[in-house]
Fold:
Amino acid sequence: MADKNRKVLTRLITLADLISVVVGWLLAYGIRFHSFFPVSKGIPDLIMYLKMIPFLLMTWFIVFSFSGLYKRIGTHRSPLTESLDVLQACIISTLFFISISFFYDEYRYSRLTLVLFAVLHPSLILLGRSLIRKWLRRYRKSAQGRRFLLIGSGPLLNKGLDIIRQSYLENVTISQLILTEDPEYSDVDKEFCQKTGIKSCGIPENWADFLTENPCDSVLIAIPYRQYDSWQTQLKAIADQITDIRILPDLYRLTRFATGIDLIAGTPVISIHESPMEGSSAILKRCIDIIGALTALLIFSPLMLLIALLIRLSAGSPVLYRQQRMGLDGKTFSMMKFRSMPHDSESTSGAVWASKSDQRATPLGAFLRKSSLDELPQLFNVLKGDMSLVGPRPERPVFVNQFRHKVPGYMLRHKVKAGMTGWAQINGWRGDTSIDKRIECDLYYIQNWSLWLDIRILFLTVVRGFVHPNAY
Structure:
């Protein structure tokens, strides 16, 4: 039910966004040529601006979709967060649109019109979204109420409540709460009842009598996995009385990622570790990696040649150092760096975790590591496809085998390509710092990935500079 209503809300907001973009474009034309602004070269035909509407719609739909704005509809977010996300997507869309308009030889569009449009349309989009939500709230209040019976215990109860609250097209109330475990022994259940104010009771002895005295339209069952076997008889008794029964699978203890359901030969199969970077999202991310890596190589190629020459003169060959790292799906690859240590730096000690007191680096190598310039050859790894510009930093297999036994969720970071920079690095978790905090940042990145998040990380990497106190 919640998924169906979320789809309806997503379609309504998508339509409102596109209408707002068109209205903003036409309004910008009207203000520019039919108000107090002076017109020196005559008023252009409206048809010239109408011709650009298909490009407008295509650009804004693609950018908004890949930015994750439509995936997050239906989740609880503050108006400020949504406004910032919309504004960021509008800036990217406007830049793309301006680039497209310059290739349109038939007519050069007024720069003032483009400026007016860039200012107007984000406000119109936010206004349209607000009106859609206000209309839905009024619709829910006027619609006939739908009564839910919520059955469950433990942390899954909160998930069940969230699902019911996200039923946007219905006026939903929870008529009764049945706790499948004694709340006296569960602090979570007692807190839930106090927070929601919902009356609770234990498991009825006779479901037919209970549902006659407490009528409801739907049942949502949110019980822990350990109770599934003992609830077989109860489920049959409920199914004899209520036709609309929903079961919330207890998957949250198994995964930190979004889950997905596929139908294989008519049988539902649940994926508990579904990566957000698949299909069209993976294609877009790969295109950005190629374009970004090529651009960076053009910009930094003189510096890279100078670094290579200095290493050759001061430390001899080879200039590049190749090291086995673990990447996507746990596969190893050869990561390239400028050589910053002598050839035999690990001949006696074996693999050693770099620390602030590490004295193995050459003088030039210490500078390269401190400034992160030794990482520049990884742009070739990005072009090859072993790495991405943004993602969790790859680690050596010997350290991965240590961390996977000590840090919960460590191997989940390998669901995406390793990156040259990442969310953990721009937040200061690099070098000899907390592995737990680094993994927390990596998982946050994977769970919340969007085109804009990648751009934001790249921007912060450049703005904050390559030098960091934890780089050594």
